[in-house]
Amino acid sequence: MENEQFLNQNDFYQIVLGRRSVKSYDPSVRISREEMAEILEEATRAPSSVNMQPWRFVVIETPEGKEKLAKLARFNQTQVSTSSAMIAVFGDMKSVEYAEDIYSKQVELGYMPQEVKEQLLAAFKPSYENMPQRDMRDVVLIDSGLVCMQLMLVARAHGYDTNPIGGYEKDQIAEAFGLDKDRYVPVMLISVGKAASEGYPSYRLPVETVTTWV
Amino acid sequence: MENEQFLNQNDFYQIVLGRRSVKSYDPSVRISREEMAEILEEATRAPSSVNMQPWRFVVIETPEGKEKLAKLARFNQTQVSTSSAMIAVFGDMKSVEYAEDIYSKQVELGYMPQEVKEQLLAAFKPSYENMPQRDMRDVVLIDSGLVCMQLMLVARAHGYDTNPIGGYEKDQIAEAFGLDKDRYVPVMLISVGKAASEGYPSYRLPVETVTTWV
């Protein structure tokens, strides 16, 4: 691709403003597990509510995994078949189970004194544990949206393109990949690969249409 | 700030991996409406489901606006009082009202032939118009999460820092700023300003904890 050879992979504006949804990839390109883990590690630097990091990823990269996914993403066969990997993103409704781990580690790393950890956990853990399902769903979807955006941008810094996909069988995806559907809320699929054809440009509403100044 | 003078404002990894939640800003710094519009324009290059762009922003920058907000964000008084602006992000449950506008513009700009526009609108508009509220809420929260992440990163490219805030009076925020609370779902507040003190580093769960490979 013409575009690609000019992409400076650390150029913020080229990465952000040059991003388009790419649906067709070079099927011969594999992304190593090491590199994909690096992409995910960078993506998960995204912030989240009380740092609960409720995002969960199923990286679907084998022919068997893709075959299973293809049935649940019938409008997106090109992405499934040509991408290096499809990432199914979920939000964990019980992310609070990691609260103790996360905050202990923050103390251990010197990011936070023990007293602050205890104050913070006392302040949010009970409300998180007793949060109505609907409110928790809001939180995990918003936080997962954050990580998905960062993931798509980081993928470009690694030389790949992506397509965020919302139209798939959300009611079946968790169970298909062995996850408890009541715990893991589907967020989106993200295809990742080396672009084989460019994405289309797309129009955005003017800022004044979507913004009020107060 | 020491950090700041070394920040190359187009360095992707410095922007992304150097981002921390900053809660305290130089209160003397104003962001012009032109620059804030530019930040929002760049943020809204984020993708969204069928390009409906359901994000809406209330940029709160006047003393009167901030006074109103302060009552609804009592755990975040420092951000409200010292930031250049607080951005209240909402998701529009009726974004489909812009479908015709958006897709006509895509045709006008040569991004899409007229027939494709008609096929696409016919394919998604009825289902969007009749989507159960709960499903629509999921869509607008995820899409708004995407734009919020891009907004926080773009703000850094402009030399500012941010803090995403989820703990505020979500049930009162729409009406307080004259929006229909049934139509506009609160997503988060984002404070924006010139950092006066550095944010804290924070721990992330290892990739293997949040990822399954299939």
From TrEMBL, chains A, B:
Keyword Cell inner membrane part of the UniProt annotation: no
A Pfam family assignment: Nitroreductase
Entries under CDD domains matching the protein: MhqN-like
Nitroreductase domain span: 17-194
Domain of life: Bacteria
Matching InterPro entries: Nitroreductase, Nitroreductase-like
Similarity remark: Belongs to the nitroreductase family.
PANTHER family assigned: NAD(P)H NITROREDUCTASE YDGI-RELATED, NADH DEHYDROGENASE_NAD(P)H NITROREDUCTASE XCC3605-RELATED
Protein's name in the database: Nitroreductase family protein
Organism expressing this protein natively: Niallia oryzisoli
